[in-house]
Amino acid sequence: MLLKENILLALAGLKANKMRSFLTMLGIIIGIASVIAIMTVGDAVNNSVTSSMGDIGANNIELYLGYRDDLDFNQDLPAMEGKDCISTDMIEEMLKKYSDEIKAVSLQVSVGDGKATEGKDYANVSIIGANTGFLLDKKLNIVAGRNLAKKDQENGKKVAVISDRYVENMFNGDAQSALGQLIDIKVDNRYYTYTVVGVYEYSESQDGFSKTGGKDITTNCYIPYKTGVKQSHAEETLTDFTIIAKEGADSQSLSNEIANYFNQRYYKDSEYFQVSTYSMDAMLSELTSMISTIKLAVAAIAGISLLVGGIGVMNIMIVSITERTREIGTRKALGATNGSIRLQFITEAVVICMIGGFIGVLIGIALGMVAVHFMGYSGTASIGSITFCVAFSMAFGIFFGYYPASRAAKLNPIEALRYE
Amino acid sequence: MEKVIINLEHIVKRFYVGKPNELEILHGIDLKVYEGEFVSIVGASGSGKTTLMNLIGILDRPTEGEYFLDDVDVCHAPDRELSHIRNKKIGFVFQTYNLISRTSALKNVELPMLYAGIDRKTRRARAKELLQLVDMEERMQHTPDELSGGQKQRVAIARALVNHPAILLADEPTGALDSVTGRKIMDLFHKLHKEQGITIVLITHSNELAEETQRIITLKDGEIIGERKGSISCC
């Protein structure tokens, strides 16, 4: 009951000294608004980075063969030759050794960019020989037929999975009718023929950016890796590939282990080359932790203004208590305990901080949204940061109100009543 | 036998105890005030009137002696208990009214009941009743700034009576008022005393006002030097 009366009393006090109350709140408003706005922008950047990195695959480990770190890059270094590269046998060995942790290895080979034509109809395609691991990593959304199967891969069959855009251009959008059809794609004056076994839904993030749009868009046509290697006349050696770790595996330590494994086993005596790996997970966590650190650092700077605001509240509370010394004396004479006087002034400080905090949150949300919009990201203030700020402003009120309120509570009633 | 409401025994009050400037203001006061009595304490400036009033109103503790207020030993009660006793047993009327300026007369009167933990509805009804008693029901929504001195003192008297106190302690209640308004306030005290049987302790430097009370206690240099009956039967 006393708390409710104290809140009403505090509100009446704020109303009676509008300008002073507003100026006192200003520090809290600016502090909270800046913290919210900064957190919003930070979260938006973080989400954007995480989602774009997440699309690539957080469980992926990129492996590549390059020059040793300890080489002097000013001297002439020999070019990499076939014998230096990673063979498919080496990959098989690695898969055997780490079968518990590796889900698949993603391999791809480009046969080339070409065009399929039939009468007036045409479709631009990029033929990619993809192994099971690659397709797994791509997470293709098959809308008709099936994905490339193990037997297609093993036998190097001339089958293909094409995009729904291709189907739109060449089969009037009827995916079912495309299945089982032979398609001819012309690449550098050579025709490649495949049987369509499946249609996938085109998405820019999976197919990559196409220079052309609309009907001219270039989409991928996936064929078995073995077929791709044969058709592209590529050697079965590699300088880089992607390893997909199993769910739950520690991709960061696996990444280091695999690099060690290759370097110890195959490149120990190599004068110029070594295998390096980096896990997307490590990169992602490094990046998000960097963004979080920056976000927190900037928020902490904004927090300083909040601290200054809090000191302002404390200052004005002390002034207010001095002004109301007689009132405090009267209240004590009328039966107010020290506790009820303390509660009255802490409530007043909390009300100032909460109103300031609330206005600050609203301004912070608006500022954050505007900033995020202009920076080209999306996102609004998180419930977490709003709750944090509201709770923080309440805690601030208690913290900065406690000392003045205790001073008021300890006032001697006789001296307080005598105060001029 | 009449009940003793205020019982002061050998009360000594010293300030700056143990310091070179130690000062003894009251030198062993013995005073009894009976239920329903209208007593005045008179004395010149510096006689110890205010110190005595602070002790009677338990705003301060005596250095030596015993004080029983309505049979409660208030000398050894903790601060929190003293707040409750002030709230329940004493009604203060100050020379400068001491109303809370930001709130209405009604809310000022409600204040002691708020600290007594009385619910809003009862508070409101009782405050209105008291404001009616002091003829202030018309101005109950006004803030003290909108009231005259006499009106403020009426509100202060209503506030003092709201928790049914054992005593009404009035410190120079007419000191800040003109003679006509002062008269009206004194008349109100007489009315309350007569009609409600309230025990009133009036502290004043005016012998004229003191004469209107039933018993006059004269204080000089921290000692009671005389006690006699009032000579004017008023109202």
UniProtKB/TrEMBL annotation, chain A:
Keywords carried by this UniProt record: Cell membrane, Membrane, Transmembrane, Transmembrane helix
GO molecular function: transmembrane transporter activity
Membrane topology, as annotated: Multi-pass membrane protein
Keyword field contains DNA damage: no
Transmembrane segments: 21-42, 296-322, 349-375, 381-403
Domain ABC3 transporter permease C-terminal: 300-413
Domain of life, source organism: Bacteria
Residues covered by the MacB-like periplasmic core domain: 21-260
Pfam family membership, one: FtsX
InterPro entries: ABC3_permease_C, MacB_PCD, Macrolide_Exporter_MacB
Compartment list: Cell membrane
Assigned protein family: Belongs to the ABC-4 integral membrane protein family.
Protein name: ABC transporter permease
